Amino acid sequence: MGFIKEIVYCVTLLGVQSGGLRFWAKAIVAFLGSVLLIATLALAGLLREDNEYGLRDKLDRFLRSQNKDPARWPYAYLMSVPRFLWWERSVVSFWYLYSPSQELDAVIMEINNSFDEKRNVIFQLKPESDKTLAEIDDSEREPIYLDKKKSVMSLPSMSSARFYKGVFEKRIFASPFERVEGSISTRFIDPLHISLHKPTVSIAKVASTGLAGESRMVTSISCKEPPIDPVNVTTAHLAKRIFLWTFPSTLTTPRIIYQALKFQYVQGVMHMMDRPTIQPGSVARHPTSIERRIEPFWRAFLSRCVESFPEPLELTYIPSTSISNDHVYFKSPASGMRLPGTVKYLTVEVVDPGFYARIINYPHIWEGISCEQEQKRSYADDTSSPLVVSDIQLLHTLVFSFQKKMAPIPVESGLTLTNILAWCRGSRSQMDSFVLSSTAPFLHPRYTDEYGYFNLGNYRTSISLLLNHSISPYRSCIPYIPRVLLYNQRYTMDVSFEVYRGSPSGQIISDTTTRILGPNEVYIEITHSGICGFLKSTQVLGHEGVGIIRRLGSNVTKVKVGDRVGFGYVRKVCGACDNCGIGWDQYCRSARNYGVCDFDVGTFSHGTVWDASCVFPIPDGYLSEDAAPLICAGAMVWNCLSHFGVWSTNRVGIMGVGGLGHLAIKLAAEMGCQVVFLSRSSDKKEDTLQYGAEEFLDHIDRFSFRPLKHLLLCGSHLGDLGL
């Protein structure tokens, strides 16, 4: 994680300043404190699934998602609540943002409710004129060095006022006693000024205001004692503070429950409301495994709808923020030939991750969409809905246009996958028909894992369990029926293999990688590998390899043990997006590519674990050393030639005769193209003509030069050829 180095340095600094027995006592206490701090920082993730980033990176990612420039606030201070003994209850975290002049300028409130939902709100602060600003001692404005070598400096802030105020609209169900309406008024002091911390002064004051301007609920945070410096504090004091800082957090939830029941049933002054669906812009609860698995199929459905739409259309799909923070854009084929003002725009946002698990249970997809996009009209929030659509009529036209072309799965008798799914949910589902007829077969187990599945070809055993439970909180939309879940028996295995990593110095380092072989993965014993431009990185080298399959995952059927296969820079594809659906899985929108993720596997090693969808059998009689370069350089060149419609007799220009260029010449020549090689010198003329080029030009005469249909740039830069 990005903040580990900072924590290790702080722990070391706390101990090294002492010595002997005192050093070890302080180091142990500091270690316990750092563990709590690490847990706290891990919780402080403004966006879901970003715990691998440091605090600065987390902050910058969030600011960019809000169309804010991180350079506007180069300094920040985080105030949060720690996790203790796996117990956490952080109602709100404050990110204080400081301008380049070191003045408090804005605040991010990371609001968490009791339903695992959150909303991050950034708002500007305005200084409030106050004559007591003179209480701030000028000595507090001087930089403080934390070590004797003066390598770590604590930089003070430069406040122009004692209090700062801000207002933002309330868009989250933060309290069961408060409706989602009105606004939140805040007042802060700069937390970096010690002299302002007094028992009678609120560090932060947050007031909930109704639509009529009345105050409903006021929260005040104060500091009873002066802040302490963890560098200079004694061991006993540090241990005491860690205990007082953490242990009370375990009692927060019981105390909240007690006070809520007291307000509701004893005093009768406030009444709890049912939880509504969150508003767009909030972060939903963590998704279940079923919801994660179904989301790509809903994405694929939208993609196919747009792909088959005859009119110019651009659709923006916003997944549930608890699953992905990316926006996905789809364009219909007609949008490429659009005229100004003729393109239609549509936005579909899934707010509640439970939508994915519910949509597959509706007999008709449009019935589910229509029900899910309706406002639920709860008392706490009468405007929220699980699905937000910018133009419901346009979406209706889009969906029905595709469904007319989607052939239904024929009704069959017997123990077929379609019949099993229909039996499990009590009726047939149109989403089942789409998935089983329009997506790759190897993805069907991922879809049917909600109920399990029978694989009669491999004679896998299954057991059944009868459950009277509905997954939907909206029981008016989905029939409440007994469900039969089929759980498939699976097994996993660990594989370890020697790998070779790069290093900043360029030296190759031997290491060992251990991986669990997934159900759709294969373990390959590598025999041949290439290296491509990553020697000075710390990842495992190589992304063009050939090897022998030694082990199979439980779901793998397309290859077998002993097969010789090649594999390249694409390690895994989703098989459900628009590109995968039309055969362009090398452009998969969710691909796991070499150099971007999975840094512990590559081809420059004795073995690796790869997804079975991205390995390709090598024909007998083809040498492995010849096949390996085709997996990267060859595939890249072929993608260009095929994607842009290069045909035989086309006049194709090629620049560069390295790993890509020499294969481009050979492939284009084999396709029957007239290959023209362009160069700045005649040094490579003999090689290029031998590879299959018909013409070699090291200088171009504009008057006699015959036009090219295609030009492939396979070198590092474009030379001056007089073009």
Descriptive account of the structure:
This protein has 723 residues and is of the alpha+beta class. The chain has four domains: 4-254, no CATH class; 289-405 and 413-488, no CATH class; 493-635, Medium-chain alcohol dehydrogenases, catalytic domain (Quinone Oxidoreductase, Chain A, domain 1, Alpha-Beta Complex), CATH 3.90.180.10; 644-713, NAD(P)-binding Rossmann-like Domain (Rossmann fold), CATH 3.40.50. The strands form nine sheets. A five-stranded antiparallel beta sheet has the order 5-8-9-10-11, with no helix packed on it. Strands 25-20-21-22-26 form a five-stranded antiparallel beta sheet. It has a four-stranded antiparallel beta sheet with strand order 1-2-3-4, with no helix packed on it. Strand 10 (202-209) and strand 11 (215-222) form a beta hairpin. Helix 2 packs parallel to helix 4 (235-246) and helix 14 packs across helix 15. The chain is globular, with a radius of gyration of 31 Å. Mean pLDDT is 75; it is low at 1-21 and 450-492.
Question: Keywords, please?
Answer:
723 residues; alpha+beta; Quinone Oxidoreductase, Chain A, domain 1; five-stranded antiparallel sheet
Record the SSE blueprint.
Elements: H1 4-16, H2 20-43, H3 55-65, E1 75-79, E2 92-98, E3 104-112, E4 118-124, E5 126-128, E6 144-145, E7 153-154, E8 163-169, E9 183-189, E10 202-209, E11 215-222, H4 235-246, H5 252-267, H6 289-307, E12 313-318, E13 328-331, E14 344-350, H7 354-359, H8 365-372, E15 387-389, H9 392-403, H10 417-425, H11 430-438, H12 444-448, E16 462-467, E17 483-488, E18 493-501, E19 509-517, E20 521-530, E21 544-552, E22 564-567, E23 570-572, H13 578-581, E24 592-593, E25 607-611, E26 616-617, H14 624-643, E27 651-655, H15 661-670, E28 674-678, H16 685-691, E29 695-697, E30 710-713
Parallel strand pairs: 12-14, 27-28, 27-30, 28-29
Antiparallel strand pairs: 1-2, 2-3, 3-4, 5-8, 6-7, 8-9, 9-10, 10-11, 12-13, 14-15, 16-17, 18-19, 20-21, 20-25, 21-22, 22-26, 23-24
Helix pairs in contact: 1-2, 2-4, 6-9, 14-15
